[in-house]
Amino acid sequence: MKTKSCVVIRHLQFEDLGSFAEPLTAAGYQLQYLDAAMDDLTAAYQADLTVILGGPVGVYDTALYPFLQTELLIAKQRLAEQRPLLGVCLGSQLIAAAAGAAVYPGAYGKEIGWSPIQFTQAALDTQLFAVEDTNTEIQMFHWHGDTFDLPAGAELLASSEDYKQIYHIGSQVLAFQCHPELEGQRIEQWLLGHAAELAAWPLADLAKIRQDTKAYAPALRQFSQQLLTRWLDQL
Q1: How far apart are the first and last CA of the chain?
Q2: HEC sequence for 106-151
Q3: pLDDT one-digit tens code per residue, 73-109
Q4: What are phi and psi of 189, to 5 degrees?
């Protein structure tokens, strides 16, 4: 199998590829992490696949965090050249902004923890989502306060009760507002890494997040790896 390059732009050490790493390496990708706040991101322009992961800042924070402007330029170029691009949380918002859509604080507040997402008929038609029998939803892990308008040319694939969650732009771009890559055994890293945010959030219920993670993470891992494998196969 020919080795392909996959550049992964990371904003927090514990928000990495998670369960996505396995399907990527199985598909022949050599993974290279670049830390957005530290590293030269040039390699992300020409990689066979670029992945932009989540982080605790907003797309509109470019004046405070100038590296976000570089990420927007990378996403814009890859969109223009129709090169493969995968976004998670902040990554999905950066892709939306690069495609000309608005990104802004969500009207329904933060979405943190587990809740179901429902797939659109368009998602089922892509055959990326193997939803068993008549079950058209799965329990998903969420951690975001911002949301976005659907970019022109994009197709919505899944939503939660309050927010858009998954979209694609053609066959080359896949974006998740949610966190399908979460590995259940690493939930404590998330809770510790985001402790300040949780302390300021009135609805924080760490016990419930832990309980739900134990219940739902194994099925999410299987779903996410199957989905990513199918998407990589059709690139």
Answers
A1: 15
A2: CCCCCEEEEEEEEECHHHHHHCCCCCCCCCCEEEEEEEECEEECCC
A3: 999 999 999 999 999 999 999 999 999 999 999 999 9
A4: -65, -40
pLDDT in tens, 198-226: 999 999 999 999 999 999 999 999 999 99
Does residue 134 carry a pLDDT above 80? no
Dig out the tokens for 33 from the structure. 């992490």
Q: What is the per-residue pLDDT across 25-47, written as a single tens digit (0 to 9) for each?
A: 999 999 999 999 999 999 999 99
Under 8 Å between Cβ of 111 and 142: yes
DSSP, collapsed to helix, strand or coil, labels residue 68 as helix
Task: Give the β-pairing of 103-105 and 146-148.
Answer: antiparallel
pTM exceeding the 0.90 threshold for the entire prediction: yes
Strand order from edge to edge, sheet including 4-10: 29-35, 4-10, 49-52, 85-88, 173-176, 164-169, 155-159, 111-119, 137-144
Residues 235 and 232: their CA atoms lie apart, in Å, by: 5
Instruction: Give the model's confidence band at 129: pLDDT under 50 very low, under 70 low, under 90 confident, else very high.
Output: confident
- SS3 of 24, please? helix
Quick one: which of 92, 94, 87 has its CA closest to 68? 94
What is the DSSP annotation of 34-56? EETTTS--THHHHSSEEEE---S
235 vs 233: CA distance, rounded Å: 6
Q: Tell me if 96 sits within 8 A of 147, measured CB to CB.
A: no
